[in-house]
Amino acid sequence: MPALPYQKPYKSFDEQVSLLESRGIEIGDRQEAAYHLQRLGYYRLSAYWYPFRQRAESHVEGVDTPANSVVDGVVFMDIVAICDFDSRLRNVLLQAIEAVEVAIRVALAYELGKYGPLGYLDKDNLGPGCDNTSLIDPAHTDFAMFLHKQAEMVDKSKEDFARHFRDVYGGVVPVWVAIELWDFGTLSRFYQFLTASDRSDVAARFGLSSGKKLANWLECLNDLRNVCAHHSRLNRRHFPKNPSFPRSRTFPQFAHLRALSDRELHRLYPLICVLMYLLDQSTPSDACRARVTELIGTVNDVNGLKLADFAIPDFWQREPLWDSGMLNRDDLD
């Protein structure tokens, strides 16, 4: 099917306000509406009024395109409030992800350090995952692509410590230095390079006996981190990967998640549960937990927003994960 020419014209902020009015959105103060369109952008805000667009009875979500007009009662300032709530939630989650990411870096560097400062560069110290064919460049393995990226990160970094290792050691850096240059995605992928035994040892530091489970969680949290870091929408988002959870009865904090549908498992709430668990296991922080808890508790205060948009159960605060706060470090799945 040939591509259609794009023909939608440029519109001033005032014209954008008029367009929203024509689609049934209640504007109120036009000047205030134009201000928020200038602050946030029409296209960003459109993702938040999308769920309120009119749909035919036969509409199939994800297949059919809803009408441009919205259902009755949609107020522009409510859409702005939903968007602003999303922003606050991203910022709070990023703080929690940062704490977990740093803890994972420390645990991974400590485990790899037993092979020597440069042991992480020797494939003999790693597992069979190193030999997987790269999806980016099938002519190379995942490990070969890592080595290339590692050298590139050291070479291009403007950090003083990277410059020091370039000048003094020719760019050769020990694992506890190199890991400070890795992004979360690289951290997650390298964890999968480890032997099964080493993955299990790292996982045990976070109260898990399954290295595969931690690998799955890191992949999922990397997706969440990217969404938050790029200021993308969390509300009603379908994440590509969903976390798997321990089946053992020693993990009652995850039991309520088994009642979620497959669609709900790809929403935000399961990721928040994983994040809170890892946060408690690594760097217990009542302040960070309190910020997340407080913000979730205000979801229903925002007109047009509801807990179900994130797959959060109605009585989430009664669940062991939230009720007990701190988790038992000795629980193993």
This entry's quaternary arrangement is single chain
User: If helices are DSSP runs of H or I spanning 4 or more residues, what is the number of helices?
Assistant: 14
Strand runs, count: 0
Order of helices and strands: HHHHHHHHHHHHHH
Could you please describe the fold and organization of this structure?
The protein is mostly helical. Helix 3 packs across helix 4 and helix 4 packs across helix 12. It is globular, with a radius of gyration of 23 Å. The C terminus is likely disordered.
Topology:
Layout: H1 13-22, H2 30-40, H3 42-49, H4 76-113, H5 142-156, H6 160-169, H7 175-178, H8 184-191, H9 196-204, H10 211-229, H11 262-265, H12 268-282, H13 286-296, H14 320-323
For the structure shown, list the relevant keywords.
disordered C terminus; 50% helix; mainly alpha; 333 residues
Question: How would you summarize this macromolecular structure in one to three sentences?
Answer:
By secondary structure, the chain is mostly helical. The protein is built from 14 helices and no strands.
